Amino acid sequence: MSEKLRILTDAAKYDVACTSSGVDRSNKGSGLGDTHACGICHTFAADGRCVSLLKILFTNECIYDCKYCVNRVSNDVPRTTFTPDEVCKLTIEFYRRNYIEGLFLSSGIVKNPNHTMSLIYEAIWKLRNIHHFYGYIHVKVIPGTSPEIIEKLGFLVDRMSANLELPTQESLSELAPNKHHKNIITPMKQIKDGMGHLLPGKNDGYYYPMKYGGYKSSKFVPAGQSTQMIIGATRETDYQILNVTATLYEKFKLKRVFYSGFVDVNHNIEAPSLGGHSILLREHRLYQADWLLRYYGFTAGELLSKEKPNFNMALDPKCDWAINHIEQFPVEIMRADYYTLLRVPGIGVKSAKRIVSARRYGKLEFSNLKKMGVVLKRAAFFITCNGKTMMPLNMNQDYIARSIADSDRKNTYAIDNNITYTQMNIFDMGVN
């Protein structure tokens, strides 16, 4: 089984949608594992992506021939498939050795989507009902799976996701002719409509057994759903990608959209030029913008436009927006509302809340702001505190842009040249 594990962990490394926050559950002494909203251990892949849990493919067999996928049917690679019992054994043994706190399970396609997802359902059912595993489980849905299987599986797992793959149908038709956005959107809508619903009836086998008899009622996909887009393989602009992201958040209540920088594993795609920058830096800027959409009250149209369709690689999106809207600054710390504070570079969600709370009890000084987590080397260009400035404000846009870009140059260089993270190999942990 170690050879299967080697093949199917390596085959899963390009799937990045595996964060595990968003749900709490205790086994109350009746099984194995607990899930805590922020309690899952994370490691980082060599290219900077966040990797968590025991992350494997159920199979790297596939009936599709997507140009960007290492597991495409036309590729001559070693093929293998786990059995449901093998998935259970691996998950339990890795958990008992304290290497993991949960499972992230994706898959290629054996025979057809329903056949493959039925095998995955069997594995998850056994984990929950036979092995009493209460740890976090995230499963990828294969487009084309029947709604009945998705419904049953949704009451067993914490999070589900259906990969959008590429931002537009045109790109999908070009690189993955067997796939269609409609088949991907359909399970997304089903998951969105079912989220939070309680499992009906008491005779279905996918209830969690309780220690002293009876069954524990379960919610459908309590940690929500996510998706993943490959970026950089086709010619969509950042503006197009961000608008797709905003639509997904609005219509399907997604917890996260993940961006996977294109890796030309098959050497058969001529990716667009990024002007000398790596795909990792573009991916990084998209994640920063994504954060602004979800927590800072920005819209896609504020950050980019048809006239300015791509992010500034030298500045993060929030700083770039502030410099291009310099007429809205400086902001007075003692008077600005919460959402105005969030638009100041160097002030985040936590520090904005602390400022709003603390200023009710007295005047704030720049020294207080630093203790609250404000990054003054950014914020000082955009704020006053009790009418005072930290330094003489030079509101010339070029001067501010150069100053902030210079302070960020080391971090930007590290991301652009892929020297920020190191790979953690599951076989380095002494597993036999």
Automatic annotation (TrEMBL):
InterPro entries: Aldolase_TIM, DNA_rSAM_put, Endo/Exo/Phosphatase_dom_1, rSAM, rSAM_sf, RuvA_2-like. It holds the Pfam family Fer4_12. This is DNA modification/repair radical SAM protein. Keywords: Iron, Iron-sulfur, Metal-binding, S-adenosyl-L-methionine. NCBIfam families: rSAM_link_UDG.
